[in-house]
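Example 3.2
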Amino acid sequence: MNTHTRTLSPGHRSVDEITGSRRMRRMRKADWSRRLVQENRLTVDDLIWPIFVIEGTNRREEIAAMPGVYRMSLDLAVKEAEGAARLGIPAIATFPNVEMSLRDQTGSHILDPDNIINKASRAIKAAVPEIGIITDAALDPFTSHGHDGILRDGIIVNDETVAQVAAAAVGQAAAGADIIAPSDMMDGRIGAIRQALDANGFQDVAIMSYATKFASAFYGPYREAVGTAGLLKGDKKTYYIDHANSDEAVREAEQDLAEGADMLMVKPGLPYLDIIRRLKDEFRVPTFAYQVSGEYAMIRAAAANGWIDGERAMLESLLAFKRAGCDGILTYFAPQVAALLRG
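Structure, written as tokens:
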């Protein structure tokens, strides 16, 4: 008797009778058929690589909480950008670790045309003009208190911060940034940045809005990377979104698009796949996710302990972003993934 039509037991219907002959495993039976019907694919074109830059020459500092990730001086950052371009990675996002002597209550060093971020943009753009450069105009790496805005009497003041963030964005565009991605979550920042960029002749510089940046526990290793972990007093709940709220995230995204954002970003990533899907369905605009430092560190730590297959978990986590609707992902895994995807 054909096993496909055999009854389960006397008096019970066969599997074909139960399923109406719709056997879902037919297209899973072989590698070729699984590939043929795969709904989502991860490619090198989906990757944005965040890197950390520091002053000096030939300096590479390991970040303990992010194995395999380093702070790099500009000469090394340029070499890494050249390597990323050879792998086909479309863009990098630069983040600074600023010397403590240059940090103050207002983060004023972000306005210096020769700060480390602007120098990195100029150096990378000169050496690798074909790669996109994304910069963050938030103040936290430049403040002595680790907050994303100007601190006055224990309060992050919104409007004064917005003015400084917009001015910083113009400076970053002048240095060669292709996309400004402000992560500060101040009200009105997107509109102010768009207005400032346009007024200064940078109409072609795009804005990737951290439209939905949540008050999350997953940022810890990043704060070590940029040197704010020991500085931060209190938390950022007065300006980041409560992680319990999804309707609020949609309203934030809608506001940023109305103010001139070209792209939306969700941060963190994997714990917020539902937000990614909602934004993509609601607005149909380019949507990105940031697989943040805590997500990266968990995969690397579990893999180092032999608890998971690190390579498979890495690829599965990134494909989850594509399935949720992402057009691209900021991930510290980018070079490793790009090398795998290219063969």
